[in-house]
Design brief:
The chain has 81 residues and is α+β, with helices and mostly antiparallel strands. The protein contains three helices and four strands, in the order E-H-E-H-E-E-H. Strand 3 and strand 4 (58-62) form a beta hairpin.
Length: 81
């Protein structure tokens, strides 16, 4: 599973990365976590507000930091689909 944090490195972006890592580790899934900070690359995803979360190339959260439980649900749905 490929997980990407889209954000310039602000505190909220870093919190999203930390929370996502915790959720993925608790699920025990194999994943690759990247943090994209380049604005042009972020905009190429169609994202205009950060932080954002993409799972397997699909943006699933924009402009907020969801709870660990919400991220767990998003990751579980991505594994199922």
């Amino acid at each position: 599973m490929k997980i990407e944090i889209l954000g310039t490195g602000c505190p909220k972006c870093n919190l999203l990365e930390e929370t996502t890592r915790k959720a993925a580790d608790k699920l025990g899934v194999q994943y690759e976590l990247g943090h994209i900070k380049d604005l042009n690359k972020i905009m190429s995803y169609g994202v205009m507000m950060t932080p954002a979360l993409a799972i397997n190339g699909k943006v699933v959260v924009v402009g907020k930091v969801p709870s660990e439980a919400e991220i767990t649900t998003l990751l579980t749905n991505a594994m199922a689909g």
